[in-house]
Design brief:
Layout lengths: L1 H20 L6 H21 L8 H24 L1
Helix pairs in contact: 1-2, 1-3, 2-3
């Protein structure tokens, strides 16, 4: 059951980050990848600042969205060059 929840959180986070950064989603698989990588990035970056929301569903989604937005922002900077 944990894997299914992680997949859904990743897909939702990728979708939300796509809406925030681009204005449209990228499709389920790309949203999933962006959300999962974003969850990893967000967990690390927020951990550096001492921010821990525990293992609540809302905290996991917010962390993944923050990380996914950071990921998409970094990708957009690389694409501009």
């Amino acid at each position: 059951m944990g894997i299914i929840i992680s997949i859904l959180i990743g897909a939702l986070a990728g979708f939300l980050a796509g809406k925030i950064m681009k204005g449209a989603g990228f499709g389920f698989l790309i949203n999933l990848l962006v959300g999962i990588v974003g969850g990893f990035i967000g967990g690390n970056v927020l951990g550096w600042f001492g921010v821990h929301w525990g293992s609540t569903l809302v905290g996991q989604i917010i962390t993944a969205v923050i990380g996914a937005v950071l990921l998409l922002w970094i990708i957009s900077l690389i694409k501009k060059k």
